[in-house]
Amino acid sequence: MTTRRRFLGQSAGLLAAGYLGAPQLGMPAGRAPLRVLILGGTGFIGPHMVRRALAGGHKVTLFNRGRSNADLFPNVETLTGDRDGKLDALRNRPWDVVIDNSGYVPRHVRDSVQLLAPNVTRYVFVSTGSVYAAGHERYDEDSPLLKAPEPASEEVNKYYGELKVLCEQAVREGFGDRSTILRLHIVAGPGDPTHRFTYWPVRIDKGGEVLAAGPKDNPVQHIDVRDLAKFALLCCEQGHSGTYNVAGPAAGTTTMATYLEQIRAGVKSSATFTFVDQPFLAEQKVRFPMVMPPAATGLMRVSAARAVAKGLTFTPIRETAADTLAWFKSAPASETEGLKIDLERDARVLAAWKAKG
């Protein structure tokens, strides 16, 4: 999994079109609005959480450097600072809950935790499924975690999962049973800067014979960003403590064949699928997003049963696909040019596969 730093698309237009999911919830009777501090808030998942909180009647404060999409929420209080030693704007301010969407370096998280602990009731930390050690057939929250070979390192690109483990520890040490850890799986939906899920709705929408990595029954998982936002705010409102895998798109296993069929239904395409063995794709030097190598398919069997028991729900795959494609088609070219689809390459690989017999 990669870090999530940018929000793609023009939020106002997308929100009006309904792609970013802002349900008009309102506060339940008898429940006071929460004072919610979000560390970040203008990347990919942050804006969905902000909108969910605002729609729920909560009072939101953002803390960030003011460099990315600074005008995204003009009516929301924004404190300017930096996780790296510039936290003064947070001093002596009370909040009911903090959602930490931008914690990648243990030192930064530890500083925030120590500063906020006396004045904040709950700390919700956005972690990752990349904290798990590879080599297992399936995972739950008690599965073995990665160990940092260089605990003092701050090289996020090199030790992303290992550093997230240490960030989790810092949150637990500072907030104890007032902490909530959300271990996200691959996040899908409108605004995704990685295009991992987006590749498939866009490719399938083009029609024709779609090259897919086999076998058909390989497991595949994602979490719709709007389901993530909904569950994060539910944890805030209901005070759910502990660690939760936030993985979907269903409570049970979803095979790649079913996954692609549901995406096809969502984008209303007549595309067909040809599944090609991964060893052959490796020979052709072809890799696809949302596909794990055979030795790591356990990372697509992550149990979210604990989160489901606390209220996590799932958007149907076809709906995520339709909304993601609609967002992609409406977003500026500068925000979508990172997605490359090579139909000529795929045709060559398909021809070679069929010739192989």
Secondary structure elements and their pairing?
Elements: H1 11-17, E1 35-39, H2 45-55, E2 59-64, E3 77-80, E4 95-100, H3 106-116, E5 120-128, H4 160-175, E6 179-184, E7 187-188, H5 199-205, E8 209-213, E9 223-224, H6 225-238, E10 242-246, H7 256-267, E11 272-276, H8 278-283, H9 305-309, H10 317-330, H11 333-336, H12 343-356
Helix pairs in contact: 2-6, 3-4, 5-7, 5-10, 7-10
Walkthrough of the structure:
This protein has 357 residues and is of the alpha/beta class. The protein has one domain: NAD(P)-binding Rossmann-like Domain (Rossmann fold), CATH 3.40.50. The protein has twelve helices and eleven strands. The strands form three sheets. Strands 3-2-1-4-5-6-10 form a seven-stranded parallel sheet, with helices on both faces. The chain has a two-stranded parallel ribbon with strand order 7-9. Strand 5, helix 4 and strand 6 form a beta-alpha-beta unit. Helix 3 runs parallel beside helix 4. The longest helix is centred in the middle third of the chain and has 16 residues. It is globular, with a radius of gyration of 21 Å. The N terminus is likely disordered.
